[in-house]
Structures are given as C-alpha cells and as structure tokens.
Design goal:
145 residues, alpha+beta, four-stranded antiparallel sheet, 6 helices
Length: 145
C-alpha cells in the first residue's frame, strides 16, 4: 500500500510523459496525444486516475487512495467504478478506444500499453468516418430522453 507521502508525491504539478505517446499536464488537467492531434480536458479525479496508470499503480485500493486522498477510507467501490466508466466514456468521446484502460479482475486497472503504442504508430485511433459518426450518434441518443 502507498504511504500518504508517496500519494502526495504523485500529485505534484508538472507534465507526465508516456514514451512521447501521451502527455498528461497536471497543471491544466489536459491529456494530449501529439501524433493524433488529440487534446482534451479531464477533471481532477480523472487526472489522478491517469497519474496512477502512468506510474504503474494498478491495485484498486491504491488507486482509490491516490484519487480520493483524504477521503479514501469512506470511498465505496461504486465511486471507483463510476470514475472508470466516466473516464472510458471520455476517451471514446475524444476518438480513443475505451479499452485503453483494462480492468484486471479482482485486482484493479492497467493501461493498455500495446494498444497505446499501436495508436501512436497508426496515427488515428478510429477511422475518420467513425470519429464523425460518434458525436452524431451521441446527440441522437440524448434526444431520445
């Protein structure tokens, strides 16, 4: 388990770089994939989740400790699962596959590093026609409710 000091060290502002494929700007809460020209904003919890994944912290309890810091004793599994669900949805809205984050059953999460490297080589996470179709489908689905 992480100590409180180790958890705080992870949260220090700055840029976190994953093999020049993915950049996480902690100061502005932005994720950038330079080769795909994709930049999007994340909230504080999503930023902390990504920090964990970039630093190979994959145990659910340790992720909860870093993401919710002072409140980690009161956080339930539902909060954790909701965060993961929302982060995967955010990835999809920005043209990235949801399986960029992989659930490790009965343990936690991990970053799908082979897929991330593959995306870096391809230049696009989804074909252009699918990237244009996704926002239209989301808009249509929202109009039904």
């Amino acid at each position: 388990m992480l100590t409180d000091e180790q958890a705080q060290t992870l949260l220090i502002s700055g840029q976190h770089n994953y093999e020049d494929i993915l950049l996480l700007d902690s100061a502005y809460n932005k994720i950038t994939l330079p080769k795909q020209s994709i930049t999007f904003s994340v909230n504080e919890a999503q930023k902390r989740l990504m920090l964990c994944l970039l630093n190979k912290i994959s145990c659910k309890r340790e992720i909860i400790q870093v993401v919710w810091n002072d409140n980690h004793q009161r956080i339930r599994d539902n909060n954790y699962h909701q965060l993961v669900f929302q982060f995967r949805a955010l990835l999809q809205r920005n043209g990235l596959p949801a399986n960029l984050i992989v659930t490790v059953p009965y343990y936690g999460l991990k970053l799908n590093e082979p897929l991330l490297r593959e995306l870096n080589g391809c230049g696009s996470a989804m074909p252009e026609e699918r990237r244009k179709l996704l926002p239209q489908l989301l808009s249509f689905a929202r109009s039904l409710f």
